[in-house]
Design brief:
single chain; 301 residues; globular
């Protein structure tokens, strides 16, 4: 359970840092590339078995996790850019909903591909989690957008969902205590590499000016980014909760914590629908977390 709590804290801190990106006018793409490089080196430094020879290109290419790392790394940078575009063109509420709703994909993967436990209480919690995401991110219970941007919403939903599902796949068949950090470093460096391709293209178009503050904030973001992935994989591997529980619990926990942080740090105002979403999130967390205990108590399933 401690790994889930730490995942929620580190993930929420990333979202708070993004708030400061907007406040200090940080270039998102430059900072996010530095963030991935920082997270990648943190993963290497945290690896007790690290050596240059172990992390050679040849060894990485022939590793058991290279395919999953490639998928996740590419989707990390693509999804981030889609989220940034969606926030500007569609609005933060719609973008956040599509991003968080993507948890449906790894939950389905866990339930039906990895044959995790299915019971009425857990499924009720997942449904409540979906409602919680909608209400916590909407304004007065409504979301509206131009239909021409529907494909962006769909791509964010699918991209994040596939990335999370691939992480679960990697945890199930490829990862162990000896190669976790090598996998993390590989994934982060792949994301940075593809981000560099985007950046190079934009530099040639004259759309970027390098600033020191972008590098500094990228480093700041990279620290919780590494620990979020580390604790998340630890939570998936712990055996205490199934992935169909971990994904909704983390999403709901992030909603509650970031909403609280928004009120305390940024004096944000929450509508009635936002408070309803937070209340549903708390109920969803309780149902999903204690599904087995409640099942035994009420003898339903």
């Amino acid at each position: 359970m401690i790994d889930i709590i730490l995942t929620i804290i580190t993930f929420s801190s990333m979202l708070i840092i993004f708030k400061y990106f907007e406040l200090f006018k940080i270039n998102n793409l430059q900072a996010i590339i530095v963030n991935y490089i920082t997270a990648g080196f943190l993963a290497l430094f945290a690896d007790k078995n690290f050596s240059i020879s172990n992390f050679s290109i040849g060894n990485v290419i022939h590793s058991e996790f290279i395919f999953q790392a490639l998928i996740i790394g590419v989707l990390f940078i693509i999804t981030f850019n889609l989220v940034a575009f969606g926030t500007q063109k569609i609005g933060i509420s719609i973008t956040t909903v599509s991003n968080k709703m993507s948890m449906i994909i790894p939950v389905i993967v866990g339930l039906f591909i990895f044959n995790e436990d299915k019971n009425l209480i857990k499924l009720s919690g997942v449904i409540l989690a979906i409602l919680a995401i909608y209400f916590s991110c909407s304004k007065n219970g409504k979301l509206s957008f131009e239909k021409k941007y529907l494909f962006i919403i769909i791509l964010i939903f699918i991209g994040q969902g596939i990335a999370d599902s691939t992480l679960k796949w990697a945890q199930e068949i490829s990862l162990n205590e000896t190669n976790n950090n090598t996998f993390f470093a590989t994934t982060f460096f792949i994301a940075a590499l593809f981000g560099g391709v985007f950046l190079t293209y934009q530099i040639f178009k004259g759309q970027h000016t390098f600033r020191t503050k972008n590098i500094i904030w990228g480093i700041i973001l990279g620290i919780p980014n590494y620990f979020t992935l580390f604790f998340f994989v630890e939570a998936l591997s712990s055996g205490i909760f199934e992935s169909s529980q971990v994904f909704p619990i983390v999403n709901m926990g992030v909603i509650v914590l970031t909403a609280t942080s928004g009120i305390l740090l940024f004096k944000e105002h929450l509508s009635k629908s936002n408070w309803l979403g937070i209340a549903l999130a708390v109920i969803a967390i309780s149902l999903i977390t204690f599904a087995k205990e409640l099942l035994q108590l009420f003898n339903v399933g």
